[in-house]
Amino acid sequence: MARITALTDAQAPARSGELLNGVKAKFGKAPNMFRTLAHSPAALNGYLQFSGALAEGVLTAAEREIVALAVGQANQCGYCLSAHTLIGKGAGLSDEAVKSAREGKGTALAALALKLVENRGFLDDDELATARAKGLSDAQILEVIAHVALNTFTNYVNHVAGTDIDFPEVKV
């Protein structure tokens, strides 16, 4: 049960309503996480701006979903795991790739994302060298860090809010 409710269009502050309309135009609906963030137009706008900027980065849609799945599992966020499993499959991830990403395995991106969450953003020289040896560029490393931050934000929002899952549910 939600502890911070997802707002309807009528309940949302005017600026959040505008932002939700943009979400609906892009995705066909505004999922509960966006509607929960709508309580704060600044938080919703910040999420959308950061997410939009990262969508123009070097990581592909599938790679961004791999990071989101690794972070969602590490942070035990059922909402995000459910959302990103569906989105990841839409981006071309197989069931096995989804499972591997959740385990922080299968790709250097997943392993780095998991390591960042586990170490609260700290990497020693050997861990950074390992990411590079596995083929990650500095741009990819920086974008993984950014995606870890963005996904940790949504994980925490969903933990605190108790956001009702409006995707096919995936167990943590």
From TrEMBL:
Ranges for domain Carboxymuconolactone decarboxylase-like: 41-102
SUPFAM superfamilies xref list: AhpD-like
InterPro entries: AhpD-like, AhpD_core, CMD-like
Entry's Gene Ontology molecular function annotations: peroxiredoxin activity
Classification via Pfam families: CMD
Keywords: Oxidoreductase, Peroxidase
Keyword Oxidoreductase listed: yes
Protein name: Putative peroxidase-related enzyme
Organism: Permianibacter aggregans
